[in-house]
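User: Sorry, what's this?
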Amino acid sequence: MMKLFNKILIGVAGFGALAGIALAGDERVKEHTGPSSNIAWDVPQLLFVLGGDPERGKELNTKMMCYTCHGKEGVSAARNWPSIAGQKANYTYKMLIDYRDEKRVDTETSSLMVKLAKTMSEQDMADIAAYYASFPLPPATRPKLASKEAVQKIIPLLTDGDGKRMLPPCFLCHESGRSGDGRDTPAILGQRAEYFRKTMQEYKNGSRHNDIYARMRHISAALSNEEIDALAQYFAQMK
């Protein structure tokens, strides 16, 4: 119980401090005006996403050719495209809204998603999010981004965080990687290691900026490239 309490304290302190840093004048944050996302997770919004139709989402996956990048059942065959099988519907829905609203225009692949999302209704988004959420998480893979020693070394970051760097435990929000919190923190277990690394590097350099309160931007900036590689490998290979 005490260990859990300490985790929560680290998480609250870390997020509070990170938000304070952003307000104090992080140049990357200043470059992007307006909120990181236009999503407001009130009860009607949560119920709307919860009511998504996975059968219609399956049809959309084929009709809109989502499967060409993300797979017929949400497991991507490409290293730099995310697997979204088993992903929380809220998170997938939020990403589509962010693409539509051009909160994610950081890379060439993002620009493709922006164009696609602008053709979708919010019902389409909820339905396809429900479809991908209906599957189990992707199977484990064996990437070669980090040594076994490096992976073991980052375990304390997952469970305890790092108070000196104001880093909350990864598991505080991502819950062992199998799910996220009740709203829009993603599941990351089984995620493509190369995509995980790419995402963290985009947060680290500020090119991706749709994270609420700039949390992931500041967390990734505090991590070394070696730690990011080790985290990517850990989550990709865990079952």
User: Anything to note?
Assistant: The chain has two domains: 14-33+141-237, 43-133.
